[in-house]
Design brief:
alpha/beta; seven-stranded mixed β-sheet; four-stranded antiparallel β-sheet; globular; binds pyridoxal-5'-phosphate
């Protein structure tokens, strides 16, 4: 039996415990949804207010130079690079994950013109599959999207695969792909890989260059806490940067944006992948949010994430199994991300009832209750109380109330 004293001891000895104070979490709420929208770092509002009031308000257009707004995509990208095992100059913050994926997938397919297959898996975020379908339609060159089970990707790699497009951590199950292994297999077959790090960046010690990764995209508003709709990021390995030809050939990716040449000429390096004017307010919030990672060792973040998950699993097994809540996240550390997912036919209503008890998780179709574990601000006591309240919801059957079954627009 797991007891509460043990849980409190885990918090007392947690080397990341102090990070929580940097976040403005509402009183009485246990927030286990940082994998959908990261919590608000306390100093973000002040920083954004300053950029609005002083830089935009007083310095106006001069701010592009005076406050170096123009280099924000690169500067913020460099800060993200450290968290994902990339070098300075290999990452930019820009656009949304969807747009960055469209850009990279189009450019990657052009590097393998004789091949026709885009390979992905059915655990991928459907959005990414939609983007691939759109790109294939736009190129109109008979590309086909092949979708396998997550554990069959390796066998499906053949000589026709141009690009493998995978999300490292499955948004539903929390299952994690082996980035190094799949990248090596792809390269051996002559294919390129684009990794989606939406559920990895900020939650674990991703090692893009150590895995010999080609390209990656990821989200600014999940574990990086950049705020709703924050700019996303993209990574292109240095060795590929000169050969990657941008599909969205906009002026911010031009070699000399302010020369106003009539012809497009891509910038050197990662910057060529920029398209339009950077969203300075969004980048400011993301930049400020990244301060909470300063000096933080990502292997510690990973270790705590796994420990939070282990505690969740142990308590769920002890206290929730009798209610038919099945743990679907793999338990082994090397194949797990930073969330725990439970399956139940009434998962939607259970999550709604649990939110009524002050514990925020979320629901994913068709029957998944999902709990994100964020090492910078979740405590071990959070997990204890979340399980206790979930047990209460199940024992009392509160989730059976009709009000918890009404589907809202955003689940
Ligand atoms: C959250 C998420 C996205 C979101 O893309 P947007 O362009 O920000 O809407 C894309 N892919 C994955 C795997 C995600 O988890």
């Amino acid at each position: 039996m797991m007891d509460y004293d043990h849980v409190l001891e885990l918090d007392r000895t947690d080397p990341l415990a102090a990070s929580r104070a940097a976040f403005d979490l509402p009183e009485g709420v246990i927030y286990l949804d940082g994998n959908s929208l990261g919590a608000l770092p306390r100093h973000v509002p002040g920083r954004v207010a300053e950029v609005i009031g002083q830089q935009w308000g007083r310095d106006l257009i001069q701010s592009w130079n005076r406050h170096d707004w123009i280099s924000m995509p690169a500067r913020v990208g460099d800060r993200i690079a450290r968290l994902i095992g990339a070098e300075s100059g290999e990452v930019v913050a820009a656009d949304s994950t969807s747009v960055n994926l469209m850009k990279l997938l189009s450019a990657a397919l052009a590097l393998r013109p004789e091949r026709r297959t885009i390979l992905s898996d059915n655990g991928n975020f459907p959005n990414d599959l939609y983007i691939a379908q759109g790109v294939a339609g736009l190129l109109d060159k008979e590309h086909r999207l092949r979708i396998t089970d997550p554990d069959q990707v390796a066998e499906a790699i053949d000589e026709d695969v141009a690009v493998i497009m995978l999300t490292e951590v499955d948004y539903r199950s929390g299952r994690r792909h082996d980035m190094s292994d799949l990248t090596a297999r792809a390269h051996a077959a002559g294919a390129l890989v684009i990794w989606d790090l939406c559920h990895s960046a900020g939650a674990m010690d991703v090692d893009l260059n150590g895995s010999n990764a080609d390209m990656a995209v990821g989200c600014g508003y999940k574990y990086l806490n950049g705020g709703p709709g924050a700019p996303a990021f993209m990574f292109v390995a240095r060795r590929l940067q000169p050969v990657l030809k941008p599909a969205l050939s906009g002026w911010m990716g031009h070699d000399q944006p302010f020369a106003f040449d009539l012809d497009y000429r891509p910038a050197a390096g990662i910057l060529r992948n920029l398209a339009g004017t950077p969203p300075i307010l969004g980048l400011t919030a993301l930049d400020a949010a990244l301060d909470s990672f300063d000096g933080v060792d990502m292997t510690r973040v990973r270790a705590k994430s796994l420990a939070l998950g282990d505690l969740f699993v142990a308590l769920a097994r002890e206290r929730l199994a009798c209610y038919g809540l099945e743990i679907i996240t793999p338990e082994a550390h090397d194949v797990r991300g930073s969330q725990i997912s439970l399956r139940h036919p009434e998962a939607y209503a259970i999550i709604q009832a649990l939110i009524g008890e002050g514990v925020i998780g979320d629901f994913r179709m068709p029957d998944i209750a999902r709990f994100g574990l964020v090492p910078l601000y979740n405590s071990f006591a959070d997990i204890w109380h979340a399980i206790e309240r979930l047990e209460g919801v199940m024992a009392a059957g509160t989730y059976r109330q009709p009000r918890f079954r009404e589907r809202l627009a955003v689940t």
